[in-house]
Amino acid sequence: MRTIFVAIALTFILVVTGCTPDKALDFGPTGEISTPPEDQMSRDIMRDFAGRDFFLANNDHEAHVRLSDWKPGRGIVMPYWLGVNPLYPGFLRPTVGHLYVMSQSTLVRPLSNNEYLIRAGSKLFKSDTIFEATHTHYTDTGGMLPTVVRFVGTRVITVPKDAPATGTITEKVPVLREISMPMHTTPDQDLTGYAKFEAVK
Fold it and tell me: At a CB cut-off of 8 Å and minimum separation 6, what does 185 contact?
């Protein structure tokens, strides 16, 4: 019920202010970065989580993550990609170079060079996004397990429209570079609907 109320209130704000999703989510000028983060904590996360899975606590507003070999009680808090209210002007706007936990994403189709077109975002809005995989290779489409990523910039792409539509669409999209492996799962977890993947050797 609370989620519905938030969605209705948010829609009203957008209508009144004339703010549409494409205007609210301007991810910045075209271009990608490859320089390391400026802050030490982000550099440590990139080093410690590189190519490793992780545990994610049950929290809808912020990502509480930890590695399996960390001592009990140790963990870090990271923002989710696009946060919880991404359309509200200026609120939780992604910053190029920052790290996020990407959750509730869907892999739409593979592209070239182990890149994928995905739809990533919050419960209220998902944006077409390029996912640069560095540790995983996805073998089909579907849901994606939460993954630690870095927002490295934007790119203009031309891709086929979703069926049954025909033709192509050209759009400027954010680029997320994979840092970790997908979230840790156990054999008893139901992963129906999730895209299968394998580690890049």
Answer: 145, 191
Do strands 76-78 and 63-66 pair parallel, antiparallel, or not at all (unpaired)?
antiparallel
133-172 pLDDT, tens digit per residue, is: 999 999 999 999 999 999 999 999 999 998 899 999 999 9
Residues near 47 by beta carbon (within 8 Å), at least 6 away in sequence: none
Q: What is the DSSP string of the chain?
A: -HHHHHHHHHHHHHHHHT--HHHHT---SSEE--SPPSSHHHHHHHHHHTT---EE-S-SSSEEEE-TTSPTT--EEEPBTT-S-TTSTTSS---TT-EEEE-SEEEEEE-STTEEEEEEE-SS-EEEEEEE-SSEEE-S-EEE--EEEEEEEEEEEEEEPPTT--SEEEEEEEEEEE-SPSPP--TTS--TTBPPEEE--
What would the two tokens of residue 1 be? Answer: 């019920």
Q: What percent of the chain has pLDDT over 70?
A: 83
Q: List beta partners, residue 26.
A: none
- Spatial contact of 18 and 95, defined as CB atoms under 8 Å apart: no
